[in-house]
Amino acid sequence: MSRPTETATPMDALLAILDLEKLEENLFRGLSPQVGWQRVFGGQVIGQALVAAQRTVDEGRYVHSLHAYFLRPGDPAVPIIYEVDRIRDGSSFATRRVVAIQHGKAIFAMSASFQYDEDGFEHQFDMPAVPMPETLPGERELKEKFLVHAPEAIRRYWERPRPIEIRPVSVEHYFSRDKLPPTQDVWVKAVGAVPDERHLQAAILAYLSDMTLLDTSLYAHGTSVFDRKLQVASLDHAMWFHRPCKMDNWLLYTQDSPSAHGARGMTRGSLFDRSGVLIASVAQEGLIRKKATE
Fold this sequence. Notes:
Structural class: alpha+beta
Helix content: 10-25%
CATH topology of the largest domain: Thiol Ester Dehydrase, Chain A
CATH class of the largest domain: Alpha Beta
Strand content: 35-45%
Distance between the termini: 47 Å
Low-confidence stretches: none
Strand order of the largest sheet: 1-2-4-5-6-3-9-12-11-10-8-7
Radius of gyration: 19 Å
Shape: globular
C-alpha cells in the first residue's frame, strides 16, 4: 500500500485510500491524502473503517447499518490503524466494532451490522420533486459564475479536485447571510468509474454521506461551515443501507436539520437514485460552537 500519486485522478486516489493494508488478523492500516487539510475528512474515516469491517465478514453478507463516533481529530500526516472486533457471527447477522487509532489514542469508533440478502416487506418515502442534475449548473459553471465573488474559504473548497461532484439544487445559502430554512437538496455523483463490487460501493457511499450535512444545520442561523468564528466538527454519524446501488449515476441527497441546541446541530439525510429509489438514510449530530472572543 502506498499513498496515491499526484497524477492519479481524484477517484483513483479515493480507491487507493480505501484499499487498506492488512497488518495482522483484524488489524489494518490506512493512509490519508496529502491535500493540505489540517485534519482527516470524516467521510474518509467512515469509509476506511467500513472497509476494515467488511474484510472480516463472510462472503455474501453486506452492511445494512453503521453507528459511529468521532472522538478526536485525525492527523492526515500519519497512518490510521483500524482494529476490528468480531462481536458476533449469527445465522443472519454479523456485528463488528472498529476502533481507529492514531498516536496511541482512539480517534473514531464504529459499530456495523451485516446481513445476507433476503426478501421481506417493501415500502419507502417518495423522492422530493427537484430539478434533475443536468438542468443545474455544473461545478465548472459554478466556479466561473460565482467563485470570483465568493469568500476565500468557499473558493478553496470548490477549486479543490474531488472524487465526488456536487450540484446543489440552490446556491443561495453559499452567498446569503439571511436566516434560511434548514433544508437542502444536493445531487452527488462519483467522478470516474467505481468498480462493480458492493462492498466498495457501500464504502464510497459512506464516504460521501459525510459531505454537506453540517452545512444544513447552520442555514437557520445565517452562517456556514466556512465562518471562521465557528468551531464546527462532526460528533457522530449513523447510516442505514436500504438497497444496493451502483455508483455510476447521480444520487439526490435531501437533508433537513430538525434541531440545534447546546452547541450541537442535528441533520437527517436521505439518498435516492435518480429514478426515486431510496438507497440509504443518514443521521448526524455536529458541533456548531461559537469560538470564544476576547
